[in-house]
Amino acid sequence: MIITTTNEIVGREIESYHGIVFEEVITGINMFKDMGAGLRNMFGGRSKGYENELLQAREEALAEMGRRAENLGADAVIGTKMDYEVLGSDNGMLMVTCSGTAVVLSV
Q: Which InterPro entries match (predicted)?
């Protein structure tokens, strides 16, 4: 499955459009990652715990969006957009959303 932010794929023609596909992944940040991030906020540095959580959520969202496009008979998703939000009363949840247009490419 080709997933791209562009509206075309070099060297391939779009044969048909199969609609917009979406995916949302919401993940909780545990208290240990939160404590580590708090320390890094005070003293500086990168928060590997948050970075890894974000990476995993992003990969899951793209993979599931690709599966949804495949279920529609598509072989690519173009025009992909991604967004991030913090949720929950204590901002302890991270949401990654992505959307794009499912298309079939000519051979």
A: UPF0145_dom_sf (IPR035439), UPF0145_YbjQ-like (IPR002765)
Give CA–CA dist 44/42, Å, rounded: 6
The predicted model scores a pTM of 0.78
Instruction: Locate 13 and state its tokens.
Output: 């023609």
Query: Span 2-105: which CATH code?
Result: 3.30.110.70
Domain segments of the chain as ranges: 2-105
Tell me the HSE value of 41 on the side-chain side, using a 13 A CA sphere.
Answer: 8
* DSSP annotation string for 80-91: EEEEEEEESTTS
Cα–Cα dist 55/33, whole Å: 14
Nearest 5°: CA angle at 64, between 100 and 48?
A: 100
Q: Are 40 and 32 in contact (CB under 8 A)?
A: no
